[in-house]
Amino acid sequence: MPPATLLAIGYAPGPRVQPVTRLYVAAGGGGDSLAAAIIHTATSTEPAHIATLAWDRLLIDPLPGPRSPSDFTGLRRLGEHVTTITSDTRPIPPAGSTLPRLAAEIDATLVLLDPTGGATGLRTQLRELASSLAAPRAEIIDVGGDALAHGDEPGLRSPLADALALSACQDIGIPVDVLIAGPGLDGEIPEDQVLARAGDRIATRLHRADAERHAHVFDWHPSEATALLAAAARGARGTAEIRDGGLPVALTEHSSDVHRLALTRALAINTPAQALRHTTSLHQAEETMRTLCGFSEIDYERAKATRTPPAGPTAITKDIDDEARAYERDAAARGIDFLTFRRLAEVLNLSATMTGHLRAHLIATRPAHHLPPIWATRPIR
């Protein structure tokens, strides 16, 4: 029946129903953004926005700390305080970022969080974002569990971003939950401690199909904790070695679980997040973390950035392949079952570009060692 006829007989169309938008906050930056995308596609068909810091490892971004909107071109303005990252966004050299490429390869909108105004500034951005999206709730995504840090754990290395995210999500106008994916997988707080703090409310358990939907991203994305999460979803069990220090991380039956707890409960656990609530600058947030935790991870990055690394190789040679094989044998003898590609690259003194070449070379020459997206020290098939 034509619209005019419908109106003539008294029919009036109801209000257009807009799809519910899922709002995620990636607690630690790029790796948690990818985890948010994986969790979203595993649990929802609704459109999603993922709010994230632009904070990559020095292997990708040689500038210490997180980036701000002034470090990018091609951002799209969503509101007075909110901008989104698109596939056309570019970091301004020498800054680097994985986010523009990630924006092109996931089915979600990436929102750039600017930490220069501390937790107070981030809260303003998140409040505006939640209002503009009419999102019914927000979920903070953290792989590993350092969002539940007390601040004095001996293995704690990067508490600032997570504490800022938790602190900023207070009073944004909608309910907020915290999702802890892959307890202990970042190597900072042991799995048993994370499980005790997170509780037994499992939001979802990731499976092989969930990991495979984003398998292509790990061809280039450097996140280690999220790579372990994806490997655990594929069934990997054993001990993995990560980071430049060679931290051992256990992959267990809990490693593909995603735990849910209320933000209020997480804040009661995370003392630094409580203290950051009224900070108005990143400098002030750093000072707070130095007082409470004894360090700021940006200081570590500043010190590391001043060290000029020796010139690394520019091609995968037989010598590099031999070194990789020798390190595998040594790791296996120490009880290590898996290595991240970043760990191997650090051991072999390879650049970010060369890490990709190493990965391609190893998979092509010895595919039996590849349990996507990590590398086994012994053949697995």
List the helices and strands and how they pair.
Elements: H1 3-8, E1 22-26, H2 30-43, E2 48-52, E3 72-73, E4 76-77, E5 83-85, E6 90-91, H3 99-105, E7 109-112, H4 118-133, E8 138-143, H5 160-168, E9 176-181, H6 191-198, E10 202-205, H7 208-212, H8 224-233, E11 238-242, E12 247-251, E13 257-262, H9 263-269, H10 271-275, H11 282-293, H12 297-306, H13 318-333, E14 338-339, H14 341-347, H15 352-365, E15 370-371, E16 374-376
Helix pairs in contact: 2-8, 4-5, 14-15
In short:
The chain has 381 residues and is of the alpha/beta class.
Description of the molecule:
- This protein is an alpha/beta fold and 381 residues long.
- It has two domains: 22-283, no CATH class; 318-376.
- 38% of the residues lie in helices and 16% in strands.
- The chain is built from 15 helices and 16 strands.
- The protein has helices at residues 3-8, 30-43, 99-105, 118-133, 160-168, 191-198, 208-212, 224-233, 263-269, 271-275, 282-293, 297-306, 318-333, 341-347, 352-365, and strands at residues 22-26, 48-52, 72-73, 76-77, 83-85, 90-91, 109-112, 138-143, 176-181, 202-205, 238-242, 247-251, 257-262, 338-339, 370-371, 374-376.
- Strands 4-5-7-2-1-8-9-13-10 form a nine-stranded mixed beta sheet, with helices on both faces. Strands 12-11-14-16-15 form a five-stranded mixed beta sheet, sandwiched between helices. Strands 3-6 form a two-stranded antiparallel sheet.
- Strand 8 (138-143), helix 5 (160-168) and strand 9 (176-181) form a beta-alpha-beta unit.
- Helix 14 (341-347) packs across helix 15 (352-365).
- The longest helix is centred in the N-terminal third of the chain and has 16 residues, at 118-133.
- The radius of gyration is 22 Å and the shape is globular.
